[in-house]
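$ run holo --ligand "flavin mononucleotide" --emit tokens
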Amino acid sequence: MKKLLSIILSAALCIGSIAAVASDTDTTVTLQINNPVMTVNGANKEIDPGMGTVPVIINERTLLPVRAVVEELGGIVNWNGDTREVTLNYGTDEILLTIDSDVAYLNNEAKTLDSKPTIINDRTMLPIRFIAENFGFGVDWNGEEQIVTITKTAKAVAEPTVEPTVEPTDAPTAEPTEVPSDNQAEESKILVAYFSNTGNTENIAESIVSAMGADVYEIEAAQPYTDEDLNYNDSSTRATVEQNDPTARPEIGNLLESIDEYDTIYLGYPMWWGQAPKIVYTFLESYDFTGKTIIPFCTSGSSPIGSSDDNLHPAASGANWVDGRRFSVSASSSEISAWAAEGCRIK
Ligand SMILES: Cc1cc2nc3c(=O)[nH]c(=O)nc-3n(C[C@H](O)[C@H](O)[C@H](O)COP(=O)(O)O)c2cc1C
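-- output --
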């Protein structure tokens, strides 16, 4: 089945690419940060139909989904899941990029990238400037509107000399979607850890996981909270009693063995009486967060995040704490992914 899928993907790529090269005209593609819709010669087009892929800014670099851009401009993209390499062909030029490596090859000559290609949400993302400069595309950045414009003039078009691979192999040959998500999480070293009882914080956590290609961990109480435990109209119920007790540290039933492999931790919780639930303190006090970046987020009925994030700092004092953010239950995935990418940039 996997072989069949590879053949179909490769064949689809082949047909699509040849058709693109055949249209020997000027092409202008614009992409906007956090916008899943690009324009191609003025017409709106979803960057990645059904996937919600958006350009993002990470570490002050604008990362674009490489497949969409290069194919729109008439290039060919091949993905080797075994070696995690992306080969781009345009005219007679070939660029070879490796995920998480700052060494790229232009026509077999090694070049150093100022930002490494990465995978976000199953898509290969990379700064466009290196590709544009070497393939002869124009690039313009509008910082106010956060729009990248990439222009190909017809004279830059040449027939590709390298055909995409069509042989069936066990490895995925075309689409980064073939990369097992576990591998991405190992590479990304990002963890989304959250506590949630009624699913609101969990929903936000899932959007961050998907935007950042992160691992996910739900903090589960050894003794789960019942509806009665969560009844904040009664001051004698468990959640309220715990929140009023500075020493309360409810036991976690599913502690992770280690968090050593993670550099960045998004930490989500519901607001309980204006503060993070005490079990979040249990989580923080269970590990050494020295040198790690923690990015808090919360959901609430209406309260802002207030002092709830700052009050967590002593529980992981060696961490680099980023200011937290409260989300309403109706926050859109683009709003969440924009914030998540920015949170990473701040560290
Ligand atoms: C014990 C308790 C206390 C709460 N205190 C607040 C509060 O102070 N301010 C607020 O806006 N919402 C408060 N809420 C509402 C939750 O913060 C809100 O429903 C949250 O989105 C639930 O997240 P979850 O679905 O991930 O558990 C409280 C809820 C509970 C159970």
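-- notes --
Residues 13 and 174 are 7 Å apart (CA to CA).
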